[in-house]
Specification:
452 residues, binds iron/sulfur cluster, 19 strands, 3 domains, alpha/beta, five-stranded mixed beta barrel, binds 5'-deoxyadenosine, Rossmann fold
């Protein structure tokens, strides 16, 4: 049988979290393996895959609009297909299944978070039969790491250690679309880490909705510290992980920030709210005091650690006093970065049933106040870097100026530095170079590469 993918071009639009970005690399790996070529834009593509997110309403409604508007985009010259084929995967695919086909008449394929590997077969069926196909299954599938991949960068890899979530925070849709938490065996993780080190990867980011509870389903107890030690022992230069749940962050893991050479001094520890009443309504299962205790221990283990967090403003019933508890917590911790979100009601979650009578403008004003504080604190945190020389993993050139290199410090700060005279920017990508910091802005540092 002829290969329907031969001569085709595909593009993937990814929304949401790093897990989706990782899944997109697997989708790209499968399609390239079948002979389709990656392109950047929908206009150039014969096959368009949307990897979707439904954590907040904005991304949800945008997807429907985007797919609907695609019918106006003409086919590219020389396409081997009779039309442009569109597939929707990720969390909206998982949640809505074949309802998406009914709502979007020119959508061809729907797949879910548990059956990425079905996409090529579904697309082939749609193309050969000029039909439409949806397949979504409930859990139980393999880790997408078993599928071929095309990594976005040669020098960085994402390594999922768990999928799914058992926490059921009352506002969150993730446990309903990603299923129950499932851990990968430690040996598989260690083997994948070794293969990345052999391939020249410099930085591994371990992924999971809550990496700290890794292993509970396999070993009866969390063994995240063992994962960190195993990946460090594989010989990786830089190790990071996301995301952590404060209720499961152990003293053992905190201690590794002091002793594990590859573990970078940066931690994303979502607090969501600084009010004990709201934390309880969110079903977060820790208190403000417990969280601040963790921060103290982390700073004792690694005084230079850079902390980041997620915060939801406007959870149902949040009062000005509750909000001020959050505001003061942000002031006290002094985060390097805070991802701020306005609460978004998700049908099917417990919070969607809670009374929610705070006016929009009040929530927006609180949100703006918090963003101002976050920026001030991030600016302050960056000032402390002036004069320091930091090892920067070069990621490429600045979007606005290709004579400026852009990369990441150990604390995950963006660092800019001019390409040294006579050097070739592309040969520096993926290398770690020392940069002396001369300027500190809110969201980036800049300086000069030091010649060793
Ligand atoms: N509304 C607003 N923000 C949300 N998040 C998760 N669910 C919601 C929601 N319903 C935020 C949390 C989480 C981040 C990934 O998204 O802060 O940590
Ligand atoms: Fe959602 Fe809470 Fe699970 Fe994070 S830990 S994915 S916020 S339910």
């Amino acid at each position: 049988m002829s290969n329907v993918f031969e001569g085709t071009r595909f593009c993937i639009h990814t929304f949401g979290c790093q897990m989706n970005k990782h899944d997109s690399e697997r989708v790209a790996g499968m399609l390239e393996g079948l002979g389709s070529l990656p392109v950047e834009t929908i206009e150039e593509a014969d096959i368009v895959v949307f990897m979707t997110c439904c954590v907040r309403e904005a991304a949800d409604t945008r997807l429907y609009g985007q797919v609907a508007s695609m019918k106006n985009i003409p086919l590219r010259d020389g396409t081997p297909l009779d039309k442009r084929y569109i597939a929707v995967g990720g969390c909206i695919g998982q949640r809505d299944g074949d309802k998406l086909l009914a709502a979007l008449p020119h959508l061809d394929v729907v797949f879910g978070t548990h059956n990425l590997g079905s996409l090529p077969g579904l697309l082939r069926r749609a193309i050969e039969q000029h039909g439409r196909a949806a397949e979504v299954i409930e859990g139980g599938a393999e880790f997408s790491s078993a599928l071929p991949t095309v990594r976005e960068h040669d020098w960085a890899a994402w390594l999922p250690i768990t999928v799914g979530c058992n926490n059921f925070c009352s506002y969150c849709i993730v446990p309903y679309v990603r299923g129950r938490e499932k851990s990968r065996p430690l040996d598989d993780i260690a083997a994948e880490a070794r293969s990345y080190v052999e391939a020249g990867v410099k930085e591994i980011t371990l992924l999971g909705q809550n990496v700290n509870s890794y292993g509970r389903d396999l070993y009866g107890e969390p063994r995240f510290a063992d994962v960190l030690r195993a990946v460090d022992a594989a010989g990786i230069e830089r190790l990071r992980f996301a995301t952590s749940h404060p209720k499961d962050l152990t003293d053992e893991v905190i201690g590794l920030f002091a002793t594990l050479p590859s573990l970078m001094p940066a931690l994303h520890l979502p607090v969501q709210s600084g009010s004990n009443r709201i934390l309880s309504a969110m079903n977060r299962r820790y208190t403000r005091e417990h969280y601040l205790g963790l921060i103290e221990k982390l700073r004792r283990a690694r005084p230079d650690i850079a902390l980041s967090t997620d915060i939801i403003v406007g959870f149902p019933g949040e009062t000005e006093e509750n909000f001020m508890d959050t505001y003061r917590l942000v002031e006290e911790v002094g985060y390097s970065q805070v991802f701020t979100f306005i609460y978004s009601k998700r049908e099917g979650t417990p919070a969607a049933e809670m009374d929610d009578d705070t006016p929009r403008e009040v929530i927006q004003e609180r949100f703006d106040r918090l963003v101002d504080l976050v920026q001030r604190k991030a600016f302050e945190a960056n000032q402390a870097e002036l004069g320091a020389t930091v090892p920067v993993l070069v990621e490429g050139t600045s979007k606005r100026d290709d004579s400026i290199l852009a990369g990441k410090s150990p604390k995950n700060q963006t660092v800019h530095a001019p390409v040294p005279a006579g050097a070739d920017a592309t040969s520096l990508v993926g290398r770690i170079v020392p940069v002396t910091i001369e300027e500190a802005r809110t969201w980036y540092l800049s300086g000069t590469i030091v010649h060793a």
